[in-house]
Specification:
two-stranded antiparallel sheet, elongated
């Protein structure tokens, strides 16, 4: 039996790989539940959208962990589900069964890679070729015949590119005036994070990840402005320290903190873009965020970058920040779950590429 390997995946911490496997099983259960619900109570686009998001999150998790061959197989399945969402592939119980069966066999490959550092090439090729055929056929009956043939074959029953570590140091050039302000912002960040119970280094970690994600997007956001936003994004939370045990006042302060932080930045000349990022970093792509309920392109791209970095760092490091937690996969899953809802999908992809680089650096 020929085998393929994913060397970078094998080199990851066991805890991270265990976490990935657990996340995969949770997403698989959710997808199986949705398929069963469609069979029991009928098809709906809302159910299919939820299924697609779970599948996309599953694929993103695998991508971050260097499981590129499995990502290829999941992407082919995702194309079929996306065709159902778009209306050019009709849902059928045979296709529902195919979704569950393919995920079972991808899980088999994942477990083989996890335990033995090698997986069945023939099974991977069968999945890829079979899903390609199902997707390519335009006539409904022929597509179902191909799906049935793939199901029967599964019931009987390209090596990943090496990732070269990029330089993780993103250099930022400041004007003399900006340099003075940045030093002040850094000091503010250090002090407030300590007061809020976070690690004082939280701001530096968020800034570093912001810059790496931004570079993966080809630097659409000015690096200096993004640095200021990374340091100043939570300055408004200082107001919560004055609320004592008044939970209502504390909640109101939390909702208003992006505006307060933006106002503090606006008192310094030349940081308009950073101020826009801070006031918008709690907004969501689908319009359900705050403080203004902005939607889509009304939200600066830097705000999405900052939101992803904050979410990842706060899950992975927690409040104490004393030790890197073995929960990176959970943090990655939280960000990937926001694809198309809170964050534009192409920016989530950039986040995944950035985190891959961080994981490589950590292993070294």
């Amino acid at each position: 039996m020929g085998q393929f390997a994913c060397k970078d995946f094998s080199a990851l911490d066991k805890e991270l790989k265990d976490d990935l496997l657990e996340c995969y099983l949770e997403a698989q259960l959710e997808i199986e539940t949705i398929v069963n619900d469609i069979e029991a109570t009928g098809f709906s686009h809302e159910k299919l959208d939820t299924l697609f998001r779970s599948l996309h999150s599953m694929k993103g998790n695998c991508s971050v962990c260097f499981l590129d061959p499995l990502v290829d197989a999941l992407h082919r399945l995702e194309e079929i589900v996306d065709g159902m969402r778009g209306g050019y592939i009709a849902y059928d119980s045979i296709l529902g069964a195919l979704i569950n069966t393919v995920l079972d066999h991808v899980l088999t490959l994942l477990r083989q890679l996890h335990q033995f550092h090698g997986a069945d090439t023939a099974l991977l090729n069968m999945l890829q070729a079979g899903l390609d055929q199902v997707y390519a056929l335009e006539e409904h009956d022929l597509r179902l015949q191909a799906a049935e043939a793939l199901l029967a074959a599964l019931h009987n029953e390209p090596e990943e590119p090496s990732t070269k570590q990029d330089d993780l140091v993103v250099r930022v050039e400041y004007t003399p005036m900006q340099e003075t302000d940045i030093e002040q912002f850094r000091h503010f960040s250090y002090r407030l994070n300590k007061l809020l119970g976070y690690s004082p280094e939280r701001g530096e970690r968020i800034l570093k990840l912001c810059q790496i994600i931004n570079r993966e997007c080809a630097d659409p956001t000015d690096r200096a402005q993004l640095s200021a936003a990374a340091y100043m994004h939570n300055m408004g939370l200082a107001m919560t320290l004055k609320c004592g045990d008044d939970e209502a006042a504390k909640h109101k302060a939390e909702l208003n903190h992006p505006m307060v932080g933006a106002q503090l930045l606006s008192k310094h000349d030349g940081w308009d873009q950073a101020s826009d990022i801070v006031i918008s970093y709690k907004e969501r792509f689908d319009g359900t965020g705050y403080p203004e309920g902005l939607v889509g392109g009304m939200i600066p791209q830097g705000a999405f970058v900052l939101a992803m970095a904050v979410r990842f760092i706060d899950v992975v490091w927690g409040k104490s920040g004393d030790e890197y937690k073995k929960s990176a996969m959970r943090a990655i899953q939280k960000v990937n779950a926001e694809s198309g809802k809170g964050i534009p999908p192409h920016l989530v992809d950039a986040f995944n590429r950035a985190v891959r680089k961080l994981l490589v650096a950590k292993q070294r």
